[in-house]
Amino acid sequence: MEKPAHHLFVCGSFRANGAPAGACVKKDSLALVQYLQEEVDSRGLTGVLVSMTGCLNACVHGPVVIDYPAGHWYKNVTPSAAEEILDAIENDTVAEAHLMRS
User: Fold this and answer.
1) What DSSP element (H or E) covers 1?
2) CB contact set of 89 (below 8 Å; sequence gap of 6+)
3) Would you tell me which CATH number, out of the four given (3.40.30.10, 2.60.120.340, 3.40.109.10, 3.30.450.280), belongs to the domain 9-97?
4) Residue 61: helix, strand or coil by DSSP?
5) pTM of structure
6) Rounded CA gap, 1 and 62, in Å?
7) Nearest alpha carbon to residue 49 among 17, 95, 89, 84
8) What is the phi-psi region of residue 76: left when phi exceeds 0, alpha when psi lies from -120 to 50, beta otherwise?
């Protein structure tokens, strides 16, 4: 497997005890992973990998998606926001409207 140019990590809210207890899973992050993967496949984005993570400890911003290695943290990601994030990846830009600011 080649190293992806963009690895999208979606918070799955799983805690150390294995239970999905955070906000992201309650806001449908599981469906978001599937949606992102389907969009990546349908767009033919071979340099983009989608994975689910444990809790990212940013519950108030959930669902959270991290674009690694770019280091962009996206907040409140919906399918519409996910499309904008993928558009930005395709255009080598950043989906500024969805960035989590510190």
Assistant:
1) none
2) 6, 45, 48, 67
3) 3.40.30.10
4) helix
5) 0.92
6) 30
7) 89
8) left
CB 11 within 8 A of CB 56: yes
Tens of pLDDT, residues 11-60: 998 777 666 567 898 899 999 999 999 999 999 999 999 999 999 989 89
Phi, psi of 18 (to 5 degrees): 90, -5
Of 17, 8, 11, the residue nearest 54 (C-alpha): 11
Rg of the chain over CA atoms, in angstroms? 13
Contact call for residues 54 and 20 (beta carbons, < 8 A): no
Distance of CA 102 to the CA centre of its chain: 18
